[in-house]
Amino acid sequence: xxxxxxxxxLHIEGTLEPELAFELAERNGIELPFDSVEExxxxxxxxxxxxxxxxxxxxxxxxxxxxxFADLAAAYLERAAAQGVRHAEIFFDPQAHTxxxxxxxxxxxxxxxxxxxxxxxLGISSRLILCFLxxxxxxxxxxxxxSARPHLxxxxxxxxxxxEIGNPPEKFREVFAAARAAGLRRVAHAGEEGPxxxxxxxxxxxxxxxxxxxxxxxxxxELVERLRREAVPLTVCPFSNVRLRVVERLEEHPLxxxxxxxxxxxxxxxxxxxxxxxxxxxLDGVRRALDLDPETVRELARNSFRAAFLDEERxxxxx
Length: 319
Ligand code: ADE
Ligand code: ZN
Fold this sequence. Notes:
Layout: E1 5-11, H1 18-27, H2 37-42, H3 49-59, H4 66-82, E2 85-92, H5 95-98, H6 104-122, E3 125-133, H7 138-148, E4 157-161, H8 173-181, E5 185-190, H9 196-204, E6 210-213, H10 221-229, E7 234-236, H11 238-243, H12 255-260, E8 265-267, H13 272-275, H14 279-289, H15 294-306, H16 312-318
Parallel strand pairs: 1-2, 2-3, 3-4, 4-5, 5-6, 6-7, 7-8
The protein binds adenine and zinc ion.
The site of adenine (ADE) has 10 residues, from loops.
């Protein structure tokens, strides 16, 4: 039995398995530039974040209707439940859909319907986190937040993702301030491929409450000390880091260093359909590769509940 846990770093578009991609392509009359599921899977070989993002955005063309988004999220939640996930905080990238003519309401309504269904049928609680694409203009992020206003009852927070280098958190100061004023929680990808200073900016400029990835904080001991003192959670994604060549091998992953520095570390799957495994696979992978003892694994799982945007009653029930 998989250990009960929360998943806090998961892009719903990154759960699109090749089989579902082909099914949705057929349903929507879309021609994919791959002949088969096997050929598509063979394309999942990446040299860096951008090489992954190119395929990730291209495959999203199969997602068109509210039902497509509901089916995508339902498939993820079923797999997550089987991997011990009791609570999931799910990122979505509205600009990757609105830029193709899919309305934000179609995306949010479809996802929210599947989340509600899974709460009833699987007992998984969940949240939606709207991510801004950092390689798009800041004005577009603000327009995205404005267009999300009618749907904020279904959205817990905002995040920042996509190509990191050259797109510092500073660029999104205003939109994060507006999100905060609207009562939204804040997270940001930082220190994945980008420098440790982006982690500092995410905290100081965006008011980020968690850092997604954050592994490069280790290059700055003062920052590590601050993350420890302020107990800022890191949502670390080991399989992703290996597949996107942030680290060379799982055996060399800095997870033990982050834990050893006293940080609130969690283990997550990022884009499990692309990176070779869901959250329990990641946890089991690092347990074996890094020889983690059972208490450390239990602490990682407890951290996932501590770092979640949960009300205290549900947190106490889960921890
Ligand atoms: N979008 C989906 N996965 C991502 C990642 N690992 N980093 C940045 N943006 C992403
Ligand atoms: Zn991510």
